[in-house]
Amino acid sequence: MADPSSYRPKPGEIPDSPGVYRFRDEHRRVIYVGKAKSLRQRLANYFQDLAGLHPRTRSMVTTAASVEWTVVSTEVEALQLEYSWIKEYDPRFNVKYRDDKSYPYLAVTMGEEYPRVQVMRGHKKKGVRYFGPYAHAWAIRDTVDLMLRVFPVRTCSAGVFKNAARTGRPCLLGYIDKCSAPCVDRVSAEDHRELAEEFCDFMAGRTGTYLRRLETRMTEAAEEMEYERAARLRDDIGALKKAMEKNAVVLADATDADLIAVAEDELEAAVQIFHVRGGRVRGQRGWVTDKVEEITTGALVEHALQQLYGEETGDAVPREVLVPALPDPVEPVQQWLTGRRGSGVSLRIPQRGDKRALMETVERNAQQALVLHKTKRASDLTTRSRALEEITDALDLDSAPLRIECYDISHLQGDDVVASMVVFEDGLARKSEYRRFQIKGRAGDTQLWHGTGQDDVRSMHEVITRRFRRYLAEKERTGEWTDGEEPGAGTPAGGLAEPPAHTLTEDDGRPRRFAYPPQLVVVDGGAPQVAAARRALDELGIDDIAVCGLAKRLEEVWLPGDDDPVVLPRTSEGLYLLQRVRDEAHRFAITYQRTKRTKRFRSSPLDDVPGLGETRKQALLKHFGSLKKLRSATIDQICEVPGIGRKTAETIAGALARAEPAAPAVNTATGEIMDDTEEPGQATGSPGEPVSTGADEGRGQER
Question: Which residue range forms the structural domain that includes residue 645?
């Protein structure tokens, strides 16, 4: 690791003007490229106290051994030069969009004498009209197959075309009228080019006029009693309409636009792009990137625009580009896009209407792409093994944590406080082992849950105590662990760790609840939550289970008693696994907390009245206006409600009288509320599924 002060330029040496800078390592390899409106101000940010830098930035400046810069005239030039250098040097610390494939396009080679329709990938060529990109090549072939009966354009390769011309016999498509067979002069080069231009016009969205012309010709043929020609035109219209259905209208004003959405977490980001031409979605593509530097959503959008339009010109850059966040500053990017297109480009965030609705669809696709990427990454055995090894080394564990339990606390401004416990074995979620806890606190502690800042800490101590008190009880019931039968011992390669045989019940062979201990306990939070969990284990006399916490702000790993966190590399598989475990615990806790809150809001003493259905409940509440007024009503007044007899009214009055809240039972020895409740998890969704951490409208901030 280099000391940044050893290569720091003097402030007077750095120009106060726009430019592009490059950090190089000791081997002169470019590791980071950036642009700046003011090189002096931007570079000064890198050479401050290392403790004040973000961990990702700190890693970059300590890896670098030198920095150099190039001055340009404007920010637009800086943007262009930055893109060129990133493409040239592929710096390790810059955002890199990983495309798992080269997306296919529908291409028409208008530069040839006899234009050809085909599937193309890779860099775009001059003289070729492109439509797309498409997600799959078969989608292009399906569309082309439908349209060839109307626009019989050549689709064969140069070799097939020359062979047909030499033999004087067309290929199969020529015989079945899906090719106009210019190879054997059935159609002139001019007429064939006109067919190709009509094909391109139709694919570009100019469909209405052509369909109306076909319908007019069909009607005329029918009037002239040329029924075979009319039937063929009818079939042609049907084929074109079927091809159009594959690209449904999403914007009624025939808009040409690209919509870009970003789904991200602390480690990765997924970008999805919808290409809309003529009001229809003509193509879709996406990338995933590791966030190896501290970066905002606007900066991710800027890099996506560079990736998307860096080699495009003309009509390939649409009039409108809709994004979830604007780059800062936005003016140079907008000027750059205008220069690529040759005319004005609107770069903005859609706020309402059809465009906003379509942007939400693109955002959902981005979220699903990120979830799918995480799922594929987590399912790889080699990757999981490397993640467990990295965690073992980073936390200085005696053995790999084959079983990891993670705990998270969720509440809504102190109400409905719950906790979740999720279990990962061999790096995979084991949902049957998930558990949910209702946090009860101690008698008289009601006010402590509101605004003290200790909610999560006290709750974490309670849930860890309860979980491992159960573990000790099961351990005492089944006997001590015997030599050679420690948790996780004898796990088959690539398989899930199984509990030792003596932890199984005698009747059904299933493991007892809470009987199988983890090698690592992860808590959602920083040093205070970790200290609370460790204190709970110490109070129970458990010293053979490791504890750590994962703080969400900087993804730092905290260990008990340490003043400084453990910072894992951003590309570490170990950090990725810990993050995934933490996010799953957070999702599971919030799901349970919302379920409890919904039940509490919807519950009513009338639910306990036998034979009282929803219709009569609504009639009662509508008649009296509120449950409070219904509770104070007499039996005769209740009988006035249509459908309520005297016997039912008496039952209702009795149920309301019994519905007064009772004081909870308290253990006089410990002061704890009794009826300890742990519920088995109802695991919904997928591990790594995006979770909402926002505010529940009208009910405050939710955690």
Answer: 604-662
